[in-house]
Amino acid sequence: MEVKRRKFQGVLNILSFNRHFYVFGLGVLLILFVSHSLLKWPDLFFWIIVAAFLYGLIMPLLVSAYVYDFSGYYELHWMKEFIKDQEKVKMIVNINAGFDETSFIIKSKFPQSDLKAFDFYNVKQHTEPAIKRARKVSLVYPNTQQVASSSIPLKDRTVDIVFLLSAVHEIRSHEEKVLFLKECHRLCTPEGKVIMVEHLRDFPNFLAFSVGFTHFFSRSVWKDAFERAGFASFRETKFTPFMSIFECSP
Fold this sequence. Notes:
The model has no long low-confidence stretch (mean pLDDT 86). The chain has helices spanning 9-17, 19-39, 43-70, 103-109, 129-137, 174-187, 203-209, 219-228, and strands at residues 91-96, 114-119, 145-146, 159-165, 188-198, 233-239, 243-249. It has a seven-stranded mixed sheet with strand order 3-2-1-4-5-7-6, with helices on both faces. 42% of the residues lie in helices and 18% in strands. Strand 1, helix 4 (103-109) and strand 2 form a beta-alpha-beta unit. By secondary structure, it is of the alpha/beta class.
């Protein structure tokens, strides 16, 4: 089964899952206009504040449309750079944080491989409202297993590719990230690898998401986590200025 994405599905997901943020932002704008009419703020000061709020509301949608709807991210053609010989890939693991948009697509790209999907979402530890809403509409890949981030029920050195696609930033604790990546390291065959995709806490994502960029982590944080988890290589490739693909091998 291959899932065909709708036009602007990425933007619609952002609006749906983060609607509390947009309701709050629009409410603040309404208060600004009312207070301006009553208190007669200086026009320049007023319009600077309005422009800042509009930037914070609109720019994430524009960037999300670019990254998720127009860049070809969900077509997965970019994987060819990291997986040269698909016929040798026998076992794939795809791990999500409660919202799985990729397992059906990955399976369509690797029909000969055994794909197992795992969900490490923990309602007590991972408390983002957006994830709670996303889980309600997410398609569930057959036999997806709910797991703890520190325990994945597979044997050592049995997995050729571990995909972590825009998921691991939901693990907020650095120590928990290290434990999770140690599990991924344990699963990988000697020739296996982890392929992780993440936004970073960097300047392009600050321009895109303003203070929302703090929801992501810096390259140095990820490098430290992978090294502490035992990975020997850590290579970053940019997929658009706003997303990074990390290829890490045991």
